[in-house]
Amino acid sequence: MAVLVNKDSKIIVQGFTGNEGTFHAEQMIAYGTQVVGGVTPGKGGQTHLDKPVFNTVKEAVEETGADVSIIFVPPAFAADAIMEAAEAGIKVIICITEGIPVADMVKVQNYIDQRDCTLIGPNCPGVITSEEAKVGIMPGFIFKKGRVGIVSKSGTLTYEAADQVVKAGHGISTAIGIGGDPIIGTTTKEAVQLFMDDDDTDCIVMIGEIGGQLEAEAAKWIKENSKKPVVGFIAGQTAPKGRTMGHAGAIVGGKDDTAQAKMEIMRECGIHVVDSPADIGRKVAEVLS
To answer: What are the catalytic residues?
Structure first.
């Protein structure tokens, strides 16, 4: 069992023949991910990276049985790409694209809520189940198989946490980069819930950022429902209030949005909070010993 993707997942790449789609599809295939084709409107019938190209997601699903899609489509067209994947019956949609207008994501959220699918992102590094399937842009060599799940707003800190956990003698079951945009598909709490229900995950690393309430909501859920230890970290501890910071454009609007406030809430809810990402691996080893 794994969270969201595994060795049996059949992946298509939307934006397959573009520079980003091509580069990362090559990396995914090299990792062993089962990429079964891709979508580029107007190029259907061609072959790219020895995989078939389709004009629409619907055609790709009908021909390949794909159940996962990764999106490398420019911001202006990405919302339509997400909704097209959902309409075609894709179960896990992973959107890497950054810079999608908030108004577009409002439409996407309403659309996705009415369908049986899971959206990860946008503006995220993707999802990886170690040594089975890499559906994203993360450096696969860092992720060694193990029983620690990671959910993170930050791509860079996802990789750092994985490296720390592996160096501490453990490994990663699945890592989910949820993205840091104002409107995202899967929240921190929802990702934590997936790991709590996963038989192959014994410990969860939860990494957040300043701005918003996702981490507080997850922490309160963990307090009431936790079956496994959770190690937490919040990035942006030195950020000044009211200033846009970081890739996610997080704005710290009040005292509850600061890193310190979030870390305090997490501690009160029983999460093992560390003050530095360099301590994540050590804390995971400690709680699992």
So the answer is: 247
